[in-house]
Specification:
Blueprint: H1 2-24, H2 31-39, H3 53-62, H4 76-88
Bound molecules: iron/sulfur cluster (SF4).
Length: 101
């Protein structure tokens, strides 16, 4: 009987710990990443040096991409909407992502 009580208490404590960790460590996703990914060619070829279009979009938002033309399959029809989007969607601190075509 004591084993059941011990396991129940441990389960409750672990559950509370996981709930606290999930709430405390939660990171809000940057919605701009998905938006920018949707404007890329979507080939996931890796020519840009990132492991796919999603990672490239993350690199843009994180400021790790110098030029959009690193995406070789991309054309102006991809780059221009991204540049326009970035001018309309600044970083949380109000600064803008500086990136060349
Ligand atoms: S080069 Fe362009 S199409 Fe290829 S993975 Fe990178 S962002 Fe996607």
């Amino acid at each position: 009987m004591s084993a059941v009580i011990t396991l129940t208490v441990m389960s409750l404590l672990l559950g509370l710990g996981l709930a606290f960790a999930a709430d405390y460590l939660h990171v809000e996703p940057d919605l701009r990443v998905d938006a920018i990914e949707g404007m890329l060619p979507g080939i996931n070829c890796g020519t840009c040096g990132f492991p796919g279009c999603h990672a490239f979009a993350e690199g843009i938002v994180d400021g790790d991409v110098e030029k959009l033309s690193q995406c070789k399959p991309g054309k102006d029809k991809h780059y221009d909407p991204i540049l326009a989007y970035l001018t309309e969607h600044p970083n949380p601190d109000g600064s803008f992502i500086q990136i060349a075509k």
